[in-house]
């Protein structure tokens, strides 16, 4: 008589999760600190599925909360992520390449915001993707300039955008003919679609750009700070956390 091992679907799912954790997380993260392993349990937010650390939402344990990766408005298709005190829409995420497409929330569906400011997201753990295109948006321009789009709201004024790669030699003249200017990055797909838009439709355009996050630096920061260990980077992807505190 042969005995059989029967596993339920939930049991199989948990087995797969811990199997992946053991092989894709460094030893000190998956064996020494069971609480930190739970930071990698997947969750959904908006249209973004199977999110794991360093992303988090309210209600996740403090150990799982890394600054710059908090998500809110998960009922929207594109949730909001707060980076360096500024809100962005999370449009796309590839956790295998540590790349995400985000868009400034103040420019989301409105390229003519009330507060015209430059925003920088780069930090020790976050950098712009090198394939982004750099654009400059000029506002309050002379109506006689070509390729203008009209901003509405508190009064009406004319604006335009220029590609830094090919049109920088025009910028001095444009600054004389326009008022405020802000710099905006867009990814390749957004730039291609932007080229096909008529100026009249630009006011409601959604400008996304790509950023890359450094998971090794994030894990190292968690080790040194919230886990009170000593980080040692032995891999380009994952560091080792020596002697972490247990919770």
Give a short summary of the structure.
The protein has 247 residues and is an alpha+beta fold.
Summarize this structure as a short list of keywords or feature phrases.
247 residues, 21% helix, 28% strand, 6-stranded antiparallel β-sheet, elongated, alpha+beta, 7 helices, single chain
Number of helices: 7
Percent of residues in helices = 10-25%
Radius of gyration: 23 Å
Reported for the largest beta sheet, the result is: 6 strands, antiparallel
State the low-pLDDT regions, or none.
1-32
Instruction: Give the N-terminus to C-terminus distance in angstroms.
Output: 46 Å
Shape: elongated
Mean pLDDT: 81
The strand order across the widest sheet is: 3-4-5-6-12-7
Helix and strand sequence: HHHEEEEEEEEEEHHEHEHEE
Give the structural class: alpha+beta
Task: Give the percentage of residues in beta strands.
Answer: 25-35%
Structure description:
The N terminus is likely disordered. The protein has a domain of 113 residues. It has a six-stranded antiparallel beta sheet, with no helix packed on it. It contains seven helices and 14 strands. It is an alpha+beta fold. Strand 1 and strand 2 form a beta hairpin. Helix content is 21%, strand content 28%.
């Amino acid at each position: 008589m042969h005995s059989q091992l029967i596993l339920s679907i939930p049991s199989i799912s948990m087995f797969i999760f811990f199997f992946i954790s053991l092989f894709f997380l460094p030893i000190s993260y998956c064996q020494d600190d069971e609480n930190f392993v739970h930071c990698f349990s997947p969750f959904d937010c908006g249209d973004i599925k199977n999110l794991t650390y360093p992303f988090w939402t309210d209600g996740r344990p403090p150990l799982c909360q890394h600054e710059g990766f908090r998500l809110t408005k998960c009922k929207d298709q594109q949730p909001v992520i707060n980076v360096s005190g500024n809100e962005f829409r999370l449009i796309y995420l590839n956790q295998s390449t540590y790349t995400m497409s985000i868009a400034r929330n103040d420019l989301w569906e409105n390229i003519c915001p009330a507060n015209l400011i430059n925003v920088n997201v780069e930090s020790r753990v976050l950098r712009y993707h090198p394939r982004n295109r750099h654009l400059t948006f000029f506002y309050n321009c002379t109506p006689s300039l070509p390729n203008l789009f009209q901003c509405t709201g508190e009064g009406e004024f004319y604006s335009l955008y220029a590609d830094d790669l090919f049109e920088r030699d025009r910028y001095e003249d444009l600054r004389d003919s326009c008022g405020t200017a802000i710099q905006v990055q867009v990814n390749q797909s957004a730039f291609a679609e932007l080229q096909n838009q008529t100026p009249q439709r630009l006011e409601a355009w959604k400008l996304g750009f790509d950023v890359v996050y450094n998971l090794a630096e994030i894990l190292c920061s968690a080790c040194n700070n919230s886990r009170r260990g000593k980080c040692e980077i032995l891999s380009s992807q994952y560091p080792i956390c020596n002697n972490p505190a247990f919770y």
